[in-house]
Amino acid sequence: MNARLMSLSLLLALSGASAAAPAATAGKAYFRYDKIRMETTHAYAFAHEERNGPASTYVFLTTAPLDAQKVADAFDPGSEVNQQTGNTPGGYVRICVTPEGKECGLYFSHEGPSESFNMSGSGEFTLGQRTPARIEGRWAMTKPDDFFGKTYDFDLPFAADVTAPSPGTKLGPDGGEPGRAYAAYLAALAKGDLPALRRMLGESGRWQLPEDDEQQARQGLKDLRDGKPVSVKILSAMQRGDHAVLRVEGVDRDEIKRAGRVLMVKGEGGWSVERDDLGSVD
């Protein structure tokens, strides 16, 4: 049996796996980049929220198991996977699938030795079963291609259940306490209220907006304002324990419409901004 038929047989076998399992074995899926040939043995899938519109799906094919629930609950699944894989020899391939069922990029990451590579638009991408709870397909390019003197090829059959985030609490139209804290933060930014911002930002505020360096504080304020809306409309808000994710839209100081998500974290001083993925709607 040749490699192509073997990969198809593996995919058919995987499609019969129990849908109750959070991850399925990815068979002999591999990605080769230069002298590194990485075979993956685990497959996971997660919804990846976009700035606006329906979520895409991230499929991770890994050489070692992940804590899938932590990834599903993370603000950025890719960052959580990087934290879990760390410096352990091996790595993963991330496949992005649009809501329409098209590929939206592939990312290869390997440690020991360290190497990474991303691409889109090459090879043959096919999608089989696709439901909110499960995704199956294959992305293959078995004829090597060249990238600045390094060749690569891959065959990536995948079949995995989509791990859903832990149950959360939907907040009110204003985003509840996290939403009001974010609105207060934006108001302080707009006014240039440095004392209030230092209180809201805690330790990071003290080095971004130093009291003993007016020039650095002004630069820090400019950096914090960059790309941030002057005020926002909160479209939705979900809280899980001491974390809350706000989906917002608004217009920044340059009259550019911004939209995306904001991660709020509750600490001793109340709710504060941890990070965001705001971007231009245009």
Write the layout of secondary structure elements.
Layout: H1 3-15, E1 30-33, E2 36-39, E3 42-48, E4 56-62, H2 68-73, H3 77-85, E5 90-97, E6 103-111, E7 115-119, E8 124-131, E9 134-147, E10 150-161, E11 169-170, H4 176-191, H5 194-201, H6 203-208, H7 214-225, E12 229-240, E13 243-252, E14 257-267, E15 270-276, E16 279-280
Structure description:
The chain is an alpha+beta fold and 282 residues long. The chain has two domains: 3-161, no CATH class; 169-280, Nuclear Transport Factor 2, Chain: A (Roll). It has seven helices and 16 strands. The strands form three sheets. Strands 11, 12, 13, 14, 15 and 16 form a six-stranded antiparallel β-sheet that branches. Strand 6 (103-111) and strand 7 (115-119) form a beta hairpin. The radius of gyration is 22 Å and the shape is elongated. It starts with a helix and ends with a strand. Residues 1-26 have low confidence and may be disordered.
